[in-house]
């Protein structure tokens, strides 16, 4: 993958490298780790009475697969499939 950073740049393998546009394996791995941790932090904050339940974005962004969120995601998929 192309890199926007010099080979000896200390930002390689860090989130800052990815944010600077570098897509080398080390920078992509750093981005993936940060994204995974962010998803886990969001999931840890989910409570059963959260008003966002029943939305497709809550299904996708917070990985909530309760019946209401799953139904919203299915509805959205069907809606976009029908309009395509």
Structure write-up:
This protein has 84 residues and is mainly alpha-helical. It folds into two domains: 1-45, no CATH class; 49-84, no CATH class. The chain has four helices and no strands. The two termini are 33 Å apart.
Q: Per the principal axes of the C-alpha atoms, what is the gross shape?
A: elongated
The biggest beta sheet reads:
none
Q: How many structural domains does the protein architecture include?
A: 2
Radius of gyration: 18 Å
Overall residue-averaged pLDDT value: 87
Q: What string gives the helices and strands in order?
A: HHHH
Low-confidence segments, given as residue ranges, are: none
Q: What is the terminal separation in angstroms?
A: 33 Å
Instruction: Assign a percent range to the helix content.
Output: 55-70%
**Category from helices, strands and their pairing:** mainly alpha
Counted beta strands = 0
**Number of helices, where a helix is a run of at least 4 consecutive DSSP H or I residues:** 4
Please render the helix and strand layout as text.
Elements: H1 15-19, H2 25-44, H3 56-61, H4 67-83
Descriptive key words:
4 helices, mainly alpha, 57% helix, 84 residues
What is this structure, in a nutshell?
With 84 residues, this protein is an all-alpha fold.
